[in-house]
Amino acid sequence: MQKEKDVAIVGSGLVGSLLAIFLRKQGHKVTVFDRRPDVRKVQFSGRSINLAMSNRGWKALREAGVEEEIRGLALPLDKRAMHVEGQPVYFQKYGEEGEAIYSISRGVLNRKMIDLAENAGAKFKFEEKIWDVDMKEARLYTGESEKSVWKEYKFDLIFGADGAFSRVRHKMQRQSRFNYSQHFIDVGYKELTILANEDGSHRLDNSSFHIWPRGNFMLIAMPNLDGTFTCTLFMPFEGEVSFESIKTEQDADAFFENYFPDIKDEISNLKKDFFKNPTSAMVTIKCFPWSYYDKITLVGDSAHAIVPFYGQGMNAGFEDISVLNDKMNKYGDDWEQIFEEYQTERKPNADAIAELSYRNFVEMSSKTADPMFLLRKKIEKKFAQEHPELWTPLYSRVTFSDKAYADALKIGDYQRGIMDQVMEIPHIEEKWDSEEVEKEIIKLIKK
Amino acid sequence: MQKEKDVAIVGSGLVGSLLAIFLRKQGHKVTVFDRRPDVRKVQFSGRSINLAMSNRGWKALREAGVEEEIRGLALPLDKRAMHVEGQPVYFQKYGEEGEAIYSISRGVLNRKMIDLAENAGAKFKFEEKIWDVDMKEARLYTGESEKSVWKEYKFDLIFGADGAFSRVRHKMQRQSRFNYSQHFIDVGYKELTILANEDGSHRLDNSSFHIWPRGNFMLIAMPNLDGTFTCTLFMPFEGEVSFESIKTEQDADAFFENYFPDIKDEISNLKKDFFKNPTSAMVTIKCFPWSYYDKITLVGDSAHAIVPFYGQGMNAGFEDISVLNDKMNKYGDDWEQIFEEYQTERKPNADAIAELSYRNFVEMSSKTADPMFLLRKKIEKKFAQEHPELWTPLYSRVTFSDKAYADALKIGDYQRGIMDQVMEIPHIEEKWDSEEVEKEIIKLIKK
């Protein structure tokens, strides 16, 4: 246990709440600020992709001692259900027997995490917005507005868990030599819902992650405990088929009927959501340094917001906290060392999962219909099943392990190089499952 | 001439002042805001690299009708003077006969540009800081401090010419889908001075750009009209030989004596500056979009700050204004179209000169001592001299032409590919000036 510190966490989201639990266990006084109202007392806003908890997330929850409490809120998905145009649905297992990602509603999880942090003794201050941070003195300034009279708080440590548009990072960004980038993709997303059957059951298979890939746009659906599915439509903001191009009810009817005939019963509901819910943008944010001496550090999206196409945003944020906790155990009260080693270890991993997530966006939107790409995946999968000691697929390394993201990226690139060569084998379409190909892959690995 | 608009320019630097002249010529009412005092009434701050005006800069000044007024303030430099350790100084001509870059003091130029803009009828408001911008309504808010009572101004158009840390861009950055990056290099700079001889003459050749390349650091010197040289020491912030490592007068003595023996008479003066002047950071800033409908656009460093190693920062900013003026002439009062076409045309060029400037930093700091690199430059130069119709060196294309930076980058990459192959010719060191090599280059170009 460390010497007690008076700690502020800015942001009561998933990562902030988890950090609060860990810091309470380490014996600190914890105050969590959030500019928004208590999420437990408001309706959800209809703009959050359902979350996919995987190994890294569960590991951090386990270390915090709250894994079991969360398990009950999540539905395991062990496969993708691919709804390719003009073909029957087909299923792709994510990993080996027993491996699954877990669908969980952001709102449901966030409420629970705040409960757990409060039970652990953290104090929450909702609807109190941070306007300024005195980095040297670890002071926070809150108030009604930027120009109102501000209230001043003095802490020993401040954690910025305030998301992609972090106010704490905004202050750090004013320093010379602070590197920063925000890059938006030209695709937006909109949340839609597929209702439950009248008896409360799910309309689609509820242990699958459903995907309707449609070239440069796609729909996904993840099941909730109440029988509904949270769907997300990813589509370019502008262009021929785009959010901009769907202006009227007729446009929406035609769009859903044309591209998603297998859920056409749901069209009136989907259409309603389409015009009710906002279209949101997606951004990759990178920055460095994350820490300011022994006073301030950033965690989760405020340090490394990523696009959601690998389902790793929350998992990466939770892993930050797990790593921070390891450093606390290792360095005791030397907070400068804790923050320094935390950021040095996490930065390359955050960059790697940002890159992998962006690549998955490109892959999901443009390649899922390419037969040669699907063949490549099939060859890789078969080989991995037969030679698990030689080949762990990239997806498994990211999703079902807690090995460094940076290593996953590096090994993934190496594997891609091998597969590029395999795909060059003449008539690979015909002999992809032959012993010749298998031997060739082994030869390439051992080279 | 356009319909008169009430225009605000934020920033009275070089680009802001030039824009004021152009806008006055187009018949607009122009108010220039600057948070700093009038540069004509204060001492310079000792932290500006001397500027190198080249073709693009002169072209814009010519179009503004002020070229001749500025020519008198500048000294032509037609060559580099290389002060390589342990070798006599040697000279490298920049271009062909009559081609030169022009050394000019930022302060001297800025004072003159403000005079010229004022004479043209622009109104300047110094020491008035912008705190907020209402983008939709083109309003500016100024005041003593962020929390003081603000003064509101309403304009038709606002131009952000407020430099790398632009307040106008800062406001635009809050929009969704605004891409932005700031990347600092690990090298800092410090301004030093070499004094004039007692008779007012220059101590070093005054038609040369002087460089002392020293591996991962370097000193440069550019002459001023008064017989002095403005020197800039570029050096890593941290590390073995670094700004951080020079702490005492003894450290500084040893540093200058060790690395710059040919200017050792100047050491006490250089040392004095070393501890007096600040160490500054260098940043590449990219963003997009630059414009907000028909209301706001960014020009110069606020849109595209670059590292100074190609001597193109001011030239690129002046070229922005030249292009803007072309669009005003083309589209009359359609400001949305003017801003749209301006940003679409300039963005790839700004990215290209950012890339070229960064590459020059890498090249100047690490390659100027590599004999194979120097040989490559020699081969290229000889070929360009003998076949000017087949080969314009990249440096000339950037510095002595007004062709697009993006094309210079592209053609430069193509030429580099050819030179890579030339350098692979066996025994190239011995036969670099042979007809065989010349013919090989021609063959590679025609391929």
TrEMBL record, chains A, B:
InterPro entries: FAD-bd (IPR002938), FAD/NAD-bd_sf (IPR036188), Kynurenine_monooxygenase (IPR027545)
Domain of life: Bacteria
Keyword Methyltransferase on entry: no
Transmembrane segments: 7-23
The reaction(s) this protein catalyses: L-kynurenine + NADPH + O2 + H(+) = 3-hydroxy-L-kynurenine + NADP(+) + H2O
Keywords attached to this entry: FAD, Flavoprotein, Membrane, Monooxygenase, NADP, Oxidoreductase, Pyridine nucleotide biosynthesis, Transmembrane, Transmembrane helix
Broad EC category: oxidoreductase
EC number: 1.14.13.9
Associated pathway: Cofactor biosynthesis; NAD(+) biosynthesis; quinolinate from L-kynurenine: step 1/3
Cofactor: FAD
Pfam family, one: FAD_binding_3
GO biological process, one term: quinolinate biosynthetic process
Domain (FAD-binding) ranges: 5-355
Keyword hit for Cell membrane: no
GO molecular function: FAD binding; kynurenine 3-monooxygenase activity
Function: Catalyzes the hydroxylation of L-kynurenine (L-Kyn) to form 3-hydroxy-L-kynurenine (L-3OHKyn). Required for synthesis of quinolinic acid.
Family: Belongs to the aromatic-ring hydroxylase family. KMO subfamily.
PANTHER family reported for this sequence: KYNURENINE 3-MONOOXYGENASE
Name by which UniProt lists this protein: Kynurenine 3-monooxygenase
Organism annotation: Christiangramia gaetbulicola
